[in-house]
Design brief:
By secondary structure, the protein is mostly helical. Helix content is 51%, strand content 8%. It has one domain.
Length: 105
């Protein structure tokens, strides 16, 4: 079980780091801009943190509805797996899958 937690943490940090580099500062879903607010609201060691994981749905006609629903849910942070799913990222997606396979089996 500790290995699963470590895997989740590492993947989360990878996605968080990559997504914060790719997003513009005016993007309301950029977690970096809201981390201080989250720490103030939840404290240093929160008991409950709610998060939302987005899949590869950015090209869907329903994506704006999903974003509005995400706002209503008031999650503490969101994680997107978009470009890692189905190798949409092209060569970078293949590199990411290879790295995951080599590092995590």
């Amino acid at each position: 079980m500790p290995q699963v937690k470590q895997l989740f943490f590492n993947l989360f940090m990878l996605f968080l780091g990559l997504s914060s580099l790719a997003q513009l500062s005016e993007n309301p879903y950029n977690p970096e801009l809201k981390m201080d607010e989250l720490r103030i609201r939840k404290g240093k060691k929160p008991v409950q943190v709610y998060f939302l994981v987005f899949g590869n749905s950015k090209r869907s006609e329903h994506f704006l509805i999903v974003l509005k629903r995400a706002d209503i849910l008031r999650t503490d942070f969101c994680l997107t797996t978009a470009d890692l799913v189905n190798r949409v990222a092209g060569d970078q997606g293949k590199i990411d899958y290879k790295t995951l396979d080599e590092d995590w089996g």
